[in-house]
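Lab meeting minutes (informal)
Scribe: AK
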Amino acid sequence: MANPEPQKVLVTGTAGFIGFHLAVRLINQGYAVVGLDNVNDYYDTALKFGRLKETGIEEGEVSYNTLVTSKRYANYRFIKLNLEDKSNIDKLFAAEKFDLVCNLAAQPGVRYSLENPDVYVQSNIVGFLNILEGCRHYAVKHLVYASSSSVYGLNETMPFSTEDNVDHPISLYAASKKSNELMAHTYSHLFNLPTTGLRFFVVYGPWGRPDMALFSFTESIIQGKAIKVFNNGEMLRDFTYVDDIVEGIVRVLENPAQGEKDWNGKKPNPGVSKAPYKIYNIGNSKPIKLLDFITTVEEKLGAEVEKIMLPIQPGDVLSTFADTSGLEKDFNYKPNTLLKDGVSSFVDWYKDFYKI
């Protein structure tokens, strides 16, 4: 009896941090994976091409709207493409007939959205619409997409729950992610497209982004530079190791969202619906004070760093704390990487990548 064809998955954002790790996991599990990224210069493209190289895609092979087959993995191909390129996104969906889609590509960054709002509308809203249209017209079985803890905005009830209203974002980045959730619900309702949104809390680990805390702290400590610590370090963050995040994504991806039969429109729970639509928090559910996080990095590197204490920045929230009971109940999901172990893995990777 012939082996069944492997399921084909589109993962967007595979030159990015989480997308790269997810692609490798799915490749190793035997899926046929197509990775997509526009490899923009929001941060150092050498890091992005470094990730691509790990998946067998060489920088010199990458050109716009051209599928490249990995030299390392027979079941992996990559295409450089903008999400907002509607015509070519449609052609990709038509040609590939994806079973599953995980949309992790987006313009990230809260502070950057204050300076360059147009980029967020094009990538995160127009681009996401093109992904939804592809899923709708080409019978995708499940769309999983990245939302963000930033949607909680001015909410103060802790831990953050998907059952709470999230109508008070404090950055355009957060507003774009809330828009994704609303758009996904519309497509789930109108076209019976199963969609699941994952609100990521602070993700860290090897191959992380230079604009995130762990990367910048590590770089500064190694170079003997002072670091900026906002709100005097009195911020709480739900730091989650990237392998734990990927584990959660894979469990969700393999189980398409279903509608809730007892959903009540008079008392609507915003995290679920009668439509095949779900929202989950995905995080560690153990918030850590920023100063304690810095101490963990200092201990790994064996050096203290000068701290410049500054007020909280526009668009930043004081605390992130995930109620992950939904993922625990539905998928038996529980992150298990200790902070010191995760920080240690990142620092080891950083030293190796930058030849320190």
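Next up, CB showed the second protein from the same session:
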Amino acid sequence: MKTLAKLPVTIVTGFLGSGKTTLLRHMLDNAQGRRIAVIVNEFGELGIDGDILKQCSIGCTEEEANGRVYELANGCLCCTVQEEFFPVMRELVARRGDLDHILIETSGLALPKPLVQAFQWPEIRNACTVDAVITVVDSPAVAAGTFAAFPDQVDAQRKLDPNLDHESPLHELFADQLASADLVILNKADLISAEDLARVRLEVAEELPPAVKVIEASSGRLPLDVLIGLGAGSEEHIDARHSHHDHHHDGEDDHDHDAFDSISIDLPQADEALLLDALTQLVVQHGILRIKGFAAIPNKPMRLLIQGVGTRFDKHFDRAWGADEARTTRLVLIGQELDAAGLEAQLRAALSV
């Protein structure tokens, strides 16, 4: 009986808006015949990122593609790893003869170390190995001192007092994502000056073990051979990587990101300009960190994909509406202490719906 080689797994981590999903799409679009399974950990009630990934061309039928995308939608991977991650991995292990690689996109607020440690469990360790942990860094946000591309008002105090950087939960989480990395991508390198990029590289290097490589990218466009096949075996040395949050898993789980809320809002069709203006107002008034979803625009046959970080919104028509599909707008809002009913009422009033 032929013994199957261990299935390599790439874990992609990074803050909200850093470009993780774009990187995964690039990897899938350039799979070159590799049979890749994807686990998407979406922080929110809507598996929007999973829906995006299912549209990628990965060399198989739509039915097969849907069977290879697993969405973990009820919290961060490090929190749900025992409830959901293990059964999903067990299913993939049973199918590993049909797979060449596994990609895992963590939540933007997840801690990577506990996930890597899960690969020490015998049933997974005997069948899989962590090829690499890739941390995607939002270079302009680090250059600005915010670490994540949040609106200015979310962390105005940090900008005024740089001495708070090493004290803040956001910086600690940024450091923890770097501490677990085998490869760091300084993403959006084309959006800042060469001087700022050099400064970001130095700041990132302070948090990294010496052997970790740091590369620059724009929209995650890198050769696949640079991203997979690293053979890091991260589960073998992860315990030696220091993390600010190591003690959180000794007892009751008290992650800093528990304070983040994720709410979903369903709306009817809406004028594109009015909707984007209304969403921008929500961000400014309520400190919304991230907005993502799909919108139905009157008299448009295609669905509008919206992804916003702070007041910066990216949008494009991603696909045609299905003949039997309800043309509705579905959005996920991520922030702190969000009033779901109040936000929906404000949106509906702005859109007069």
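CB comment: The chain is about 35% helix and 25% strand.
No objections, moving on.
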